[in-house]
């Protein structure tokens, strides 16, 4: 939902949904209480459970966003620096 609210989102999926919502006027997004018998919510729950328990479900590889890769690289660099510092290899 946050990605959909972000007008500058780089996510292709978020941009696609934003465009679809902008061009279709009969779609509403909103929160509904769980387990109250709302037909659409019950169907979504059913499909989600089926997707995670199916042995025939395709495995989908979703690439990490650039921010995740940057954060991972930063953490690795800091850990390497810390190891070098601890080992006394600081400045060589």
Automatic annotation (TrEMBL):
Protein name: RNase H type-1 domain-containing protein
Domain of life: Eukaryota
PROSITE patterns in alphabetical order: RNASE_H_1
A molecular-function term among this protein's GO annotations: nucleic acid binding
RNase H type-1 domain mapped to chain residues: 1-53
Residues in coiled coil: none
Membrane-spanning parts: none
Listed InterPro entries: RNaseH-like_sf, RNaseH_domain, RNaseH_sf
